[in-house]
Amino acid sequence: MSTYPELKLFIDGRWRDTPDDLPVVNPATEEVIGRLPHARTSDLEDALAAAEAGFETWRRTSPRERSDLILRAAAIMRARQEEIAQCITAEQGKPLAQSRLEVIRGAEFFEWDAAEAMRVYGRVIPSAPGHRITVHHQPVGVVAAFSPWNFPMSQPARKIAGALASGCSVIIKAAEETPAGAIHIVRAFEEAGLPRGVLNLVFGTPSEISSFLIPQAPVRLVALTGSTAVGRQLTALAAQHDTPVLMELGGHAPVIVCEDTDVERAALSGAVRKMRNAGQVCTSPTRFFVHDSIYDDFARAFTERAAATVTGNGVTDGVEMGPTANDRRPPVLSALVEDAVSKGAELRTGGARASNTGYFFQPTVLGDVPGTAEIMQTEPFGPVAVLNRFDTLDTAIAQANSVPYGLAGYGFSNRADYVHRMAEGVEVGNFSINTLEASLPETPFGGVKSSGYGREGGTEGLESYLTTKNVWYSSEIV
Is 0.85 surpassed by the pTM of this model? Predict the structure, then answer.
């Protein structure tokens, strides 16, 4: 196994320790694999000053130079795929195959945004003789970014890529449970020659870091991937200082399975995708609404495949699902399952912690779950799937929209009228048909309702990191 990296902060182009640190734990073994320094107020003050100075340098760096440097860093990440993947599995628990894919996905985010840096076009507005009106896009400034623990590499990559491609500097507060992914990103940019202060990495108590950084005048954008509750807190704090936000928040993804689809294939793909990353994915398919005429066949195939999921330490060959990422998850999942069963749901498989060592939870399938069960409104963020019946497509769409979230949704059908009605009617920012892939670097990603504001990825991905300036020039004083 590759060596787990030495954990440090990165401020103003230099790595630093602090007297305060906390353990990083392997969720499969519960062994301490590193100790993570936590930023003090003085460290945050230094990071802010460094980001201010770094922004003045980076904003004046040409788009071509920015793009070339980002691509160099992405190439370093690709070359270190195995080393980074080993670290991700050690700290987060997912199988190595999934960690390897995450490293590549993270590199792809940088590669896409590096190309977009070359295409931040303005425009000329037709005007009267002697006048010239142009529209310019400029980097917004210092970005305070916050990334979660479920994707240690690709989630920080989304924030850092958009900021750097746009010409912004960034202070990234990555997750304390899974710090190595962000550290490897910073290492790559350090070796690629990124100027000092442009990228700064801190760890610590999330509320303390956000309450310090967000009110600071140089911070011009707050970017978060996290829960809806945290998103609301940071949005409220940012609003007090008129600071814009980019929020990718929680989901509770519905899947509508129509009667005309290939039942077996839809069930198998749904069960596999649900257990990816132990269900700890904001776009994870969770609430399956299945037409009554095919429900029994779908539920049988789905349950059998879910129950057959190979669970274990992610470094072991053949493992399909690792542990949940921390000790907080199994009790939450157990409570959701117990609540659903107490209200009449059928426990088809799983439903309990899977091991005395490690934070494992059994692949779990609940059937015929009543609307009063908490899991129908609360995202489990774990390997728990809900299977319910519907009779008409209108009913299924209404059930899909019955939660305050709207990040991702899915549908299975080969009928054009069903496809159109689902695509138009399901209230989400990302809707996929006959596939459970929700996003790519080249597609815009984000939610509606309580699932956030703004978009990452695609041609829209840099918009939040840019301001729009109208410039009106007259050849004579008028």
Answer: yes
With b for 16 or more beta-carbon neighbours within 10 A and e for fewer, the 49-75 pattern comes to: ebbbbbbeebbebebeebbebbbbbbe
pLDDT of residue 2: 58
**Spatial distance between the Cα atoms of 140 and 244, rounded to a whole number of angstroms:** 10
Identify the DSSP state of 334. Answer: H
The mean of the pLDDT values for the chain is 97
Q: Say if residue 298 is in the same domain as residue 153.
A: no
Question: Can you tell me whether residue 256 is helix, strand or coil?
Answer: strand
Angle between helix axes 96-116 and 154-166 (nearest 10 degrees) is 10
Residues 6+ apart with CB under 8 A from 353: 330, 334, 360, 361, 362
Give catalytic residues, as residue numbers.
Answer: 248, 282
| CATH code for the domain in which residue 376 is found | 3.40.309.10
Question: Which residues, other chains included, contact 344 with Cβ-Cβ below 8 Å and sequence gap of 6+?
Answer: 368, 370
Q: Indicate whether 269 and 301 sit together in one domain.
A: yes
Residue 89 structural domain: 9-249+451-470
Other C-beta atoms closer than 10 Å to the C-beta of 36 total: 22
| pLDDT score of 446 more than 90 | yes
Q: Which residue has the tokens 């795929």?
A: 81
- Considering Cα of 163, then 168, then 174, then 178, what sign does the dihedral take? positive
Which among 250, 205, 208, 254 is positioned nearest to 232, based on CA atoms? 250
Q: Which value, in Å, is the radius of gyration of the alpha carbons in the chain?
A: 23
Where does 89-168 show beta strands of DSSP type E?
123-125, 131-139, 142-146
Residue located via tokens 């199988």: 95
Helices assigned H by DSSP within 193-262: 206-213, 228-239
Residue 469 backbone dihedrals phi, psi, to 5 degrees: -120, 130
Q: How many CB atoms lie within 10 A of CB 229?
A: 10
Residue 311 has what DSSP assignment? B
How far CA 43 is from CA of 11, 19, 142, 213, 285, in Å, comes to 8, 12, 16, 11, 40
What's the pLDDT tens digit per position in 40-69?
999 999 999 999 999 999 999 999 999 999
> What's the pLDDT score for residue 1?
45
Both 219 and 259 in a single domain? no
